[in-house]
UniProtKB/TrEMBL annotation:
Species this chain originates from: Sediminibacterium ginsengisoli
Residues covered by the DUF1835 domain: 2-124
Domain of life assignment: Bacteria
Protein name listed in UniProt: DUF1835 domain-containing protein
Occurrences of domain DUF3658 (ranges): 157-254
């Protein structure tokens, strides 16, 4: 068995679940890119791949993850995945998805590359399904890593083969999104992904900017309250873009990290307050 997940926290969660159930034993393959944001034009060709990589390099500059672009190689991950499927003809691949644009877009990106293995690819999509949290209450997780390891043992019963019609229709849906080549994609429900304007998350950032704030605090606060989340790197890039457009002002030394950068509305006071929340980012 081969497990496929789309975020590092999901790898950790699944590893803990495997410790509880030997029937889940198998290699975990992580697709690291976040295909819910960024350019998708000619994504399967060298030019499109390089354009996307260059876009991420721009966003990751001065971030805590600056070296990430050099270790993300999803093309190699898929190459090794296909090699395992060829060398182990009895093996199945299980794709684990939470109800979020990151996972669903990554699923769409992966699908066309697995078409020759129809019948051996299972999907577990935790779409609007209830689980029990650590406090014993029912909740509806949007990400796999929100689920307790023991609850994964229930989730495995949801595995089903990806149908032939899905292998035919889902790549067409993804091709449409690639042709639109928007920089933000939003999950409306089920597997319905729609393209959004690049400023889709700006209102969440602006709504939580109070006076002059440390960049790290603003990101921490916004992500904690946003109903639909995206990555912190993308949000910082949007703040830079809004500053370039004159909607915000930035001050500080980027080379020293996000905690040294202050964000404010034009004309706002310079005073900032350090809070415990900032130190957690």
């Amino acid at each position: 068995m081969i497990h496929i997940v789309f975020e590092q926290p999901n790898v950790t969660a699944l590893e803990k679940a495997i410790e509880l159930d030997e029937s889940l034993q198998g290699q975990i393959v992580e697709i690291k890119d976040d295909f819910a944001v960024g350019p998708l034009g000619d994504i399967y060709h060298t030019e499109g791949y390089q354009a996307r990589r260059s876009w991420w390099e721009t966003l990751l500059e001065h971030s805590p993850y600056a070296d990430t672009v050099n270790i993300v190689d999803d093309k190699l991950a898929v190459h090794n995945l296909l090699k395992m499927l060829d060398e182990q003809p009895e093996a199945e691949a299980w794709i684990w998805m939470g109800q979020n644009a990151h996972d669903v877009c990554s699923y769409y990106w992966l699908m066309p590359q697995l078409k020759d293995y129809q019948g051996r690819i299972q999907v577990l999509y935790l779409n609007n399904l209830p689980f029990i949290n650590e406090k014993g209450s029912i909740f509806y997780p949007t990400h796999l890593h929100e689920i307790q390891p023991k609850e994964f043992l229930k989730a495995k019963k949801l595995a089903r083969p990806i149908t032939l019609s899905e292998f035919e229709l889902d790549p067409d849906e993804w091709k449409k999104l690639c042709n639109e080549n928007a920089l933000v994609r939003f999950l409306e429900g089920g597997k319905k992904i729609v393209s959004k304007d690049v400023d889709f998350y700006d209102k969440d950032l602006l709504a939580h900017l109070n006076g002059a704030m440390k960049l790290s605090k603003l990101i921490y606060t916004a992500l904690g309250k946003m109903k639909v989340k995206t990555g912190d790197v993308f949000l910082v890039w949007r703040i830079k873009e809004m500053a370039a457009a004159g909607k915000l002002e930035l001050a500080g030394d980027w080379s020293k990290g996000w905690k040294e950068v202050v964000v404010k509305f034009p004309g706002a006071a310079e005073t900032t307050e350090t809070t415990e929340a900032e130190t957690t980012v």
